Amino acid sequence: MAASEIDDFIGKNDDEMLKLDQNEEEIDRIAEIFKDRCLFISGGTGFMGKVLVEKLLRSCGDLKKIYLLIRPKKGKHPDERIKEMFNNVLFDMVKKQKGEDVILSKVAAIAGDVTELGLGIQPNDLETLRNEVTIIYHCAATVRFDEPLRKAVFMNTRGTKYMLELAKSIKHLDFFAHVSTAYCHLHVKTLYERVYDPPANPHKVISACEWLTDEQVAAIEQKILGDIPNTYAYTKSLSESLVAENFDELPAMILRPSIVIPVWREPVPGWTDNINGPTGLLIAAGKGILRTMYCNSTCYGDFLPVDTSVNGMLVASWNFLAHGKKDVNQVAHMTSSKEIKVSWNEIVELGRWVIENKMPLNWVAWYPGGSFKTNYYVHCVCALLQHWLPAIFIDLLARLFGYPPFMLKVHRRLANGLKVFEYYANNVWDFDNTEALRMRKLLNERERRTYIIEKVDLDLVDYFTNCTICARRLILKERSRRYNSYGPTSYESVNH
């Protein structure tokens, strides 16, 4: 999408966003620390990875090179995948600022795969990385909570082991950042910025998965996981322990973002490339498909916009590089619950109001509605009456009129997603963010505006509106228009 089209679906003027009110007397020390450096990023084509690459190119543009580990996908060469990535609206602003040729010259693909032996990188590319790279961001991971254990171990845990082995061979490595998650030690209700014991020995788990088959691992998966609700949390916890083992040998940090949600401010408010988390709930509710959820509506989750999370990563990187690992904590959180607590009920009601009054979706199955259920059995009855029976009826009608059935498939996916959601929606965790508070005090005014890690003071109505607009245009591929005069103009006017 061209930059001129951004106004059509986000209602923002990107020219205003390009005009940063910067004090020329203050130096951007974060940009300076990346100057003339070569970076290696795994997971650079993922949701957070794309935002990280964009922010580095836009705000730290004097870096020398970004090497992205990219596996061939659907017959596309990694170089093709980079060009395809830069066609995303997310990169329109930086292309407008720097020029597309300049941006393309700064980024190069390294063909490989974190699930393959030695990352699947060719010898000549390995030599390039070993000679040139000084900073590594390991972002690659499967974020599917229901991923089979063996696959999750190979992707998340063994992949981290291979990245650490590569890091040890880098000739002039100054920083290795492992992007973990704040939700990987679920037995701890208040998580502090320190290393926790893993649920098992990661080396033994990797070895077991290497000599057992998929079927054999699947047969004992629940026994291995124990009280841990999913393979994502289990394997990310194991991965952290591998990094912690190398703290003395490597200049490494563990970065723990919480639930990463669509862009808050820049470069495109509301931008996302997936339907995970709140975006999926927003779409399902807006389409009228989601009618009931088993959830304690007074509980809250820890959400942080992806642009704020990436800012935190860059500030933490600068802090480590500028002061050395002896003077910094090697674990840092990118979280919000210490300062902001928004209940599930508030989020759903706001999202529903936005969809009903400001940005309705096209082709809805049912008028947006439904509610939380605090009783699991009541929820099951409502799911049968409001999800499964209507889905069966719609699929029967589709068959009668010669169309392929689809609604049962949709509800199976929805049910799987809700099963994961229920565990998190009925529990509460808090996360210490001492490092963020400390790093805020180190930034000058120019850096504070460029890499916002202050308390996120977002207008939830505007935020959900932007998320819905981007979901319509980028995920659902619906034609968008503005709804400034649709329904009431104020959420507060409806509720007061």
TrEMBL record:
**GO BP of this protein:** long-chain fatty-acyl-CoA metabolic process
Its recorded reaction(s) are: a long-chain fatty acyl-CoA + 2 NADPH + 2 H(+) = a long-chain primary fatty alcohol + 2 NADP(+) + CoA
Q: What is the topology of this protein in the membrane according to its UniProt annotation?
A: Multi-pass membrane protein
Domain (Fatty acyl-CoA reductase C-terminal): give its ranges: 387-478
Q: What class of enzyme is it?
A: oxidoreductase
The signal peptide stretch is none
Example GO molecular function term? alcohol-forming long-chain fatty acyl-CoA reductase activity
**Which residues belong to any copy of the Thioester reductase (TE) domain?**
41-312
Report the GO terms under cellular component: membrane; peroxisome
Pfam families the record matches? NAD_binding_4, Sterile
Question: Is this entry keyworded Transmembrane?
Answer: yes
Q: What Enzyme Commission number does this protein have? A: 1.2.1.84
The places in or outside the cell where this protein is found are: Membrane
Q: Provide this UniProt record's keywords sorted from A to Z.
A: Lipid biosynthesis, Lipid metabolism, Membrane, NADP, Oxidoreductase, Transmembrane, Transmembrane helix
Return the similarity comment. Belongs to the fatty acyl-CoA reductase family.
So what does this one do?
Catalyzes the reduction of fatty acyl-CoA to fatty alcohols.
What is this protein identified as? Fatty acyl-CoA reductase
Source species:
Glossina austeni (Savannah tsetse fly)
